UniProtKB/TrEMBL annotation:
Keyword Transmembrane helix listed: yes
Identification of the protein by name: Uncharacterized protein
Top-level taxon of origin: Bacteria
Residue ranges of the TM segments: 7-27, 81-104
Keywords attached to this entry: Membrane, Transmembrane, Transmembrane helix
């Protein structure tokens, strides 16, 4: 039974590592796509506001807020945070997966004692 639980844990670790690696690799392209489309999104919002009749007020508010500058800063912050966060979450998950075969039998025995 121990070999089976360790096999499951190693397979889970491989899947967890693959998911983390895919997320790590996709951070830059996804944020690049978001950064490229942020200006288009703001301009589309201004166009929609103009079409619905609140154009001048909404346009002046958006210009005053400097939304494109804020979006650029938010994307830069995400670039700085996401990759280390993925590595930390991967490490926590890897430790949990590797500790599970040792801890689950003990927890099972503890719960079995409480039932009787």
């Amino acid at each position: 039974m121990k070999l089976f639980s360790w096999t499951i844990a190693i397979a889970g670790l491989a899947v967890w590592s693959l998911i983390a690696w895919i997320g790590y690799v996709l951070v830059d392209p996804v944020l690049g796509w978001v950064a490229a489309n942020a200006g288009l999104l703001v301009d589309s919002g201004k166009g929609l506001a103009t079409a619905t009749g609140v154009g001048k007020e909404a346009s002046s508010i958006v210009d005053g807020l400097d939304v494109s500058g804020f979006m650029g800063q938010a994307i830069a912050l995400l670039r700085a945070i996401l990759k280390p966060a993925i590595v930390v979450l991967w490490a926590i998950g890897a430790l949990a997966l590797l500790a599970a075969p040792m801890l689950l039998p003990r927890i099972g025995r503890l719960l079995a004692r409480r039932r009787h």
